[in-house]
């Protein structure tokens, strides 16, 4: 994803609202705060996803929009995600993973908890 595509993704959720001097916005999401110069005309840059007023001209900011580890969040645009495996796992790793997957499926099929429950107390070793 290049910078322009990232900026466009953020711009989809940004609303720009002009505020008239002496008439501050007192309700709604893009309301005036203590930082606003209510005596003069000013502009609000408001993000509808994170519900914050941003500094004028800000597009890319700390928002709930973003990338997580291989998961598509509801606020994300899936066309920007690419999930192609670009490496080849060694044969030993593939076998170990397959064994773990089979154990997991077996426990699900037998209606057992996914992780074995131990009733013995666990005491950590002291240094």
TrEMBL record:
<protein>
    <submittedName>
        <fullName>Uncharacterized protein</fullName>
    </submittedName>
</protein>
């Amino acid at each position: 994803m290049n910078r322009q595509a990232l900026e466009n993704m953020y711009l989809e959720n940004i609303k720009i609202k002009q505020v008239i001097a002496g008439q501050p916005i007192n309700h709604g999401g893009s309301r005036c705060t203590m930082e606003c110069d209510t005596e003069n005309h000013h502009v609000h840059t408001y993000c509808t996803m994170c519900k914050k007023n941003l500094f004028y001209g800000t597009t890319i900011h700390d928002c709930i929009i973003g990338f997580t580890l291989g998961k598509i969040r509801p606020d994300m645009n899936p066309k920007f995600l690419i999930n192609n495996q670009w490496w080849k796992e060694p044969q030993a790793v593939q076998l170990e993973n397959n064994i773990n997957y089979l154990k997991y499926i077996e426990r699900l099929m037998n209606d057992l908890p996914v992780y074995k429950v131990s009733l013995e107390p666990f005491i950590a070793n002291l240094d």
